[in-house]
């Protein structure tokens, strides 16, 4: 009897068909799909934190919102009924909690359950999962036939913060957006936000009216485009056709629109640069140095475009409440930041909106038959499984479109794969990659948080099903097509008795 068998036979070990890790948008979506597609299967959702919501509850900085429209960031099965298309975090949390309530998922979520490790036994065709419970201080074990990891790829403990020379000299307060103090008082104060990504461009207009002045200090500009916070056509369609039909049509429109913009930017980068520049120039004060502060050295969509709803960032700049400085930091000083140009930015508060860290599958230690899984030595299959790792799915969404568009397709395929195993009498499945197949980094994306982590991530191959596709239309064909192909291997109890492998 293996260690997994001994543990699974212990009455203290709960046995499940599926263990879902994470109660954010991915995990809640997977739970709903399982409830509807496989109601007879037993499953639970384990969440390390004390509430559901993932990113949308963790981050508490002013103005936090999605930079994707909720008609595509929302679930296909649940219409987005709010008027806001670019929605703030409280509205997104309400939507997620409604999904939990409407699908009876509340009793299936185990809060303050942190997965530490998971060990696969081929003999038993099960995972033995070690879970730390922060509410009781004990470690428990769960036996599961499948693991669906919906925890995303961010490190939820610590964000990225570079080493700043002289940091200890600064007499004011330094804050990272991932650990925003609830009692931070920035009224009437000088604030400098270091960074130029989505968080920085959200913070500036959200804080500007209350500060004495707020400055975004960037080393490199980012492409920034304004979009209406409310989608007038979507709201009209919902009013005329009803929530469900109006939502479905808007979703199709916005998926096509997102893809069109991305492909145009990739195919005609010079033209895209000119269009974005003209838009920026039209929103900024006369004489503003657009080329210095809004002209990135890379092409549009080599990194994610930043969206500003109702042009709020530009409005704050026009009002004189916010400004942008493009320079490099020489050192922190007692009163602020000395720049390499020799200028000094005075500050009472410095916000280091310098990005996030990647921690794949939440840092869980995986092993297969006693051998640790080395993620860089695996190749991703259909964007959700790893070569050589049985009965394990991970959810990674799009970097160039709404995250949830991909998650929905992955959940559909996951449920079909479970049905396929049941129909053919299999209990385990894993992808097998040709060792001679050329590979490349998992994500073709220039963002700093991705580039810093590439050597810790799985690889992707040159073509489907081994690519990490960033095209909804390509994924829809692949994931809604045939369930099995020559890259998958299947096994059952008979195989483990020495009978020929059933594929």
UniProtKB/TrEMBL annotation:
The keyword Ligase does not apply. Gene3D superfamilies: FAD/NAD(P)-binding domain. The keyword Chloroplast does not apply. Its cofactor is FAD. It comes from the Bacteria. Keywords: FAD, Flavoprotein, Monooxygenase, NADP, Oxidoreductase. GO terms for molecular function: flavin adenine dinucleotide binding; N,N-dimethylaniline monooxygenase activity; NADP binding. Belongs to the FAD-binding monooxygenase family. PANTHER family: MONOOXYGENASE, PUTATIVE (AFU_ORTHOLOGUE AFUA_8G02570)-RELATED. This is SidA/IucD/PvdA family monooxygenase. The lineage of its organism: Bacteria, Bacillati, Actinomycetota, Actinomycetes, Mycobacteriales.
